[in-house]
Structure formats: C-alpha cells, structure tokens
Specification:
The protein is mainly alpha-helical. Helices cover 20% and strands 0% of the residues.
C-alpha cells in the first residue's frame, strides 16, 4: 500500500538460480518487504558487459 513515506530501495541483478535464495534472504530480514522480479534483457556497466558509447 502506498504511504507517501520515503523508503530505502535496493536494486540488484542476479542470475535466475539466485532468485529463490534471494527471496528467502529478504523474507528473513523483512517479511513485509516488497520485491519485483523481472527478467532483464541486458545488463551493462561495471561488473557486467561494458557500456559502449553510441554515436
């Protein structure tokens, strides 16, 4: 439910095999947490595929 209060948001990219363990971990830390699980078509940047400049 939207409260209008500021909240801390964490965004992470995980492999499909890491989704279930992540859900379990989040639930242990905060059973009221709100998670969005969505497939990513591409991840670029530090630690992933290099972000290339486009003209």
């Amino acid at each position: 439910m939207y409260t209008g209060q500021e909240r801390e948001i964490h965004l992470c990219v995980v492999t499909q095999g890491e989704v279930s363990p992540l859900k379990e971990l989040v639930y242990k830390v905060d059973p009221q947490a709100f998670l969005i699980v969505s497939p990513a078509r591409e991840v670029v940047g530090r630690g992933f595929k290099p972000l290339e400049e486009h003209p």
